């Protein structure tokens, strides 16, 4: 079985999606996928058909304070959705559906 990953970024200070945010996916320090969020703040198919395992998901959000947000995630078989909520002074993530 393989894994897939999608994401979206919400600018909680502005109360809207964050378009044009660079998102990267690394495995063992090697870039395996990248994309920019669309007008709805989404990267619908960041990675598809990847091997399950440990990855680093890196966002480059539109924040004067948070220049790079990195999450270490373990992707099992199946689809995963990992959003980022960001403002100038805080950020949060969760495992979406």
Strand content: over 45%
The name CATH uses for the topology is Immunoglobulin-like
Please count the helical segments.
0
As residue ranges, the low-confidence spans are none
By secondary-structure content and strand pairing, the structural class works out as mainly beta
N- to C-terminal distance: 19 Å
Rg value: 13 Å
The CATH class? Mainly Beta
Total number of distinct structural domains: 1
Which CATH architecture would you pick? Sandwich
SSE arrangement, N to C: EEEEEEEEEE
For the secondary structure, the number of strands is 10
Outline the biggest β-sheet.
6 strands, mixed
Short description:
With 97 residues, this protein is an all-beta fold.
Structure commentary:
- By secondary structure, this protein is mostly beta strands.
- It has one domain (3-87): Sandwich (Immunoglobulin-like).
- The chain is 0% helix and 62% strand.
- It has strands spanning 3-11, 16-17, 22-27, 30-36, 42-50, 53-60, 69-75, 78-81, 84-87, 90-93.
- Strands 1, 2, 5, 8, 9 and 10 form a 6-stranded mixed beta sheet that branches. It has a 4-stranded antiparallel beta sheet with strand order 4-3-6-7, with no helix packed on it.
- A hairpin with an 8-residue loop joins β6 and β7.
- The chain is globular.
């Amino acid at each position: 079985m393989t894994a897939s990953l999608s994401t979206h970024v919400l600018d909680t200070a502005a109360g809207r999606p964050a378009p044009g945010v660079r998102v990267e996916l690394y495995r063992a320090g090697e870039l395996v996928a990248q994309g920019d969020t669309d007008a709805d703040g989404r990267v619908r198919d960041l990675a598809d058909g990847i091997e399950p395992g440990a990855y680093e998901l890196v966002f480059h959000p539109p924040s004067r304070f948070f220049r790079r947000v990195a999450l270490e995630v373990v992707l099992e078989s199946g689809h995963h959705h990992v959003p980022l909520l960001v403002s100038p002074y805080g950020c949060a993530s969760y495992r979406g559906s």
